[in-house]
# Entry
Amino acid sequence: MTVVVWIVEGTWQACIDAARRFAQGMDVILLHITEEGPAAAARGARTGLLGRSHPAHDPGKRIEAAAATAAANLLDSAADRLGRPARRASRSGRAEHEVTAACADADLLIVARDGDLRRLGPKSLGPATRFIVDHVPCPLLLVWPDEPPALASMPPHPPPPPPKRR
Amino acid sequence: MPPGSVIAETSSVLLLLVVLGGAVIKPRGLPEAVTAVPAAGVAMALGLVSPHAAREEISQLLPVVGFLASILALAQLSDREGLFEAAGAVLARGRGNLLARVFLIASAITAVLSLDATVVLLTPVVFATVARLHARPKPHVYACTHLANTASLLLPVSNLTNLLAYTASGLSFTRFGALMAIPWLAAIAVEYVIFRLFFASDLRVAERRPPPENAQVPFFALAVVAATLGGFVAASALGVNPAWAAFAGAVVLAVRALLQRRVTPAEVVRSADLPFGAFVLALGVVVAAVVGNGLGDAVRPLVSQGTALPGLLAVAVLAGVLANLLNNLPTVLLLLPAAAAGGPGPLLAMLIGVNVGPNLTYVGSLATLLWRRVLREHDHEPAIGEFMRLGVLTVPAAIAAAVVGLWLGLHVIGG
# Structure
């Protein structure tokens, strides 16, 4: 039995805690996705400096190097918090696609909510997490990164539809 | 070819497209000047631009290129002194609202050391710092690339486009800065508000207190940059070209680094990016051919004169659209004669358009983006639709806010 834990900056602690609590005895894969947007944006900005794109000055390369280091550090922190052996996986690309693909053979995925965390409701999922919830092929454990909001924050029932006119 | 004929204009435009294409495609990674300089030669050989006009263009551009080379060298040498690492340490040390700190630092660096410094030197440092804080890098990196354009409105040295306009305008350094202060602040404020809303969920993630870092404060480089900035103001008051202040600042940093054997003379020369200077001069000659053979007359009625708000807005929008169709550098060269004739109002409105407009795409212009797509050179280009949506939201709002700011400034300070 394997569990994939998606490690994202800022919310990963809750996922690790959930793995410790609910995935005892399972093989853990700590998964981090590096988004390509930042390096691509920096590289593009350099292209925009028409005539000044000296190859030695590629900020994209420096960002990619820093991203690799940051991913390794984050996975180290996550492994420390987990406190037992775990495999580490580092991918780059669109987070939602990479996470979904990484779960092809998994028995469980642990993901944190990353949207509006002030109230219960569909907006507590950001776009990437929404995609994963909709597409992931294995069972899913969705956790709140902090204390969940009170039950009273749940939106009221929508009003009944207006009566149909003939 | 008879000057002003359709064939002369068509040939000039074709040459300009060759120069721009060469700069975007960069065959075999050769410097952009390798395409641009022969193209300028062809323009002269075909009589598309007279030797006299070419000489005049080059003599006008030469001081601008020298000014820019000094600023580029100043930024590169400051980086060697650890200025940008120190900026990262300051970013890490502050408390709360990381995005606001990124905005402050990126705006200040862009204004003083030019957008090149922010794109090439600051952005990687911001990424590394934000990642170390376990915060999400994307909003902060996108902020750097946006502010490299938006925050380059303030001073003549902040952007090559400004230097070109400043040289043609006859405005003093301080007056330029005073007139652009409100537009600069207005555009940055608009960017900030939109970034906060757009990246609300990414920004809700709390940063982690990092272990304190002992980054050396590069006092010498800081002092030289501050003195250079003071030098701009002083030179402008004394009627001396502020380029000399930039040159002096770069020389001081270079001499110290050379004496301490931390750089080689070759590295100092490379930091000034001389092939880029040749590219700008050649581009100037080719654009002079395009302007001289008819486009200049065609553009003039589109650039309104005076300081009325609708006219200023129209100039900024025209400049922003052209900057996306070409790139902002040739756009400035194209519009400069017409805009400069209209006085400081239209000239500075044009700068708002060409400086903020490139944020629409992440490569400086729609044309460049299409080129890259057509060539499929970058097959692995990630879906960067998010960056474009951000551009569609920020660019029109920032241009509008900045133009209103300019209009206010012109009426408060006086055009």
Q: What stands out?
A: The radius of gyration of chain B is 21 Å. Residues 104 and 188 of chain B are 10 Å apart (CA to CA).
